[in-house]
Design goal:
Layout lengths: L16 H4 L5 E7 L2 E7 L2 E5 L4 E5 L5 H9 L1 E6 L5 H8 L8 H4 L4 E2 L8 E2 L4 E9 L3 H4 L1 E11 L9 E5 L2 E4 L16
Antiparallel strand pairs: 1-2, 1-5, 3-4, 4-9, 5-8, 6-7, 8-9, 10-11
The chain binds flavin mononucleotide (FMN).
The site of flavin mononucleotide has 19 residues, from strand 2, helix 2 and helix 3.
């Protein structure tokens, strides 16, 4: 492998997320006492696999914040690139003003273990229970346990969209297997 000799300059620390942005943009659905909502989310992270824990940053000004905090549940829905228009529209609108399912043509389907609805058009749906509230007040960080997961059987690697900030998305592309180089426990 040839070594790259990058020319670099100072980079604003508050913008390093451009490089570190995590997995696919997701649509987080929630419901409480007859109200339902969807928000777009880029800031989430896997925290553990068994149990299956996911940390999510939900800004306290979002309508979803109250619904999730009160119901202690949500669904993490994984959209593909064909839904990018809805992803942006959902992110541009505020819960109480609009029913985002109706407004953006998304279909709510009953979940099995939580009250929040699944979004049928998404490739995968993860039903989540809020299991740790200790970081919410300080960091708006909600720690969820995925208690039930639904995933499409095909395609194996869906074309997901990953937010880079500044209105830019990276669309997932080529899949390359390096499996043979991995320690089994890291797979
Ligand atoms: C690509 C994208 C990623 C976003 N990521 C987050 C996020 O990680 N956390 C967050 O609180 N808001 C995020 N937002 C903003 C919310 O989706 C937005 O505030 C939304 O309108 C909230 O809806 P609500 O008020 O109905 O809950 C994102 C928006 C976009 C377009």
């Amino acid at each position: 492998m040839s070594k790259k000799n990058y020319k670099k300059k100072d980079y604003p620390v508050e913008k390093v997320r451009r490089f570190l942005e995590p997995g696919p943009v997701i649509l987080l659905s929630s419901a409480h006492r007859g109200r339902r909502d969807i928000m777009t989310m880029g800031w989430h992270m896997v925290m553990m696999d068994e149990p299956s824990l996911v940390g999510c940053f939900i800004w306290d000004q979002n309508y979803s914040y109250g619904l999730v905090r009160r119901s202690k549940e949500c669904v993490i829905n994984v959209p593909t690139v064909d839904l990018v228009d809805a992803v942006i529209r959902v992110g541009n609108s505020h819960g109480p003003e609009v029913d985002k399912f109706e407004a953006f043509g998304l279909t709510a389907v009953d979940a099995t273990k939580v009250g929040a609805p699944l979004i049928a058009e998404c490739h995968a749906n993860f039903e989540c229970k809020l299991i740790d509230t200790s970081l919410i007040k300080r960091y708006s960080l909600f720690v969820f346990e995925v208690v039930k997961a639904h995933a499409a059987t095909s395609p194996r690697y869906p074309t997901t969209v990953h937010y880079r900030g500044d209105g830019m998305f990276m669309v997932s592309g080529r899949n390359v297997s390096y499996r043979r180089f991995f320690k089994p426990e890291n797979l």
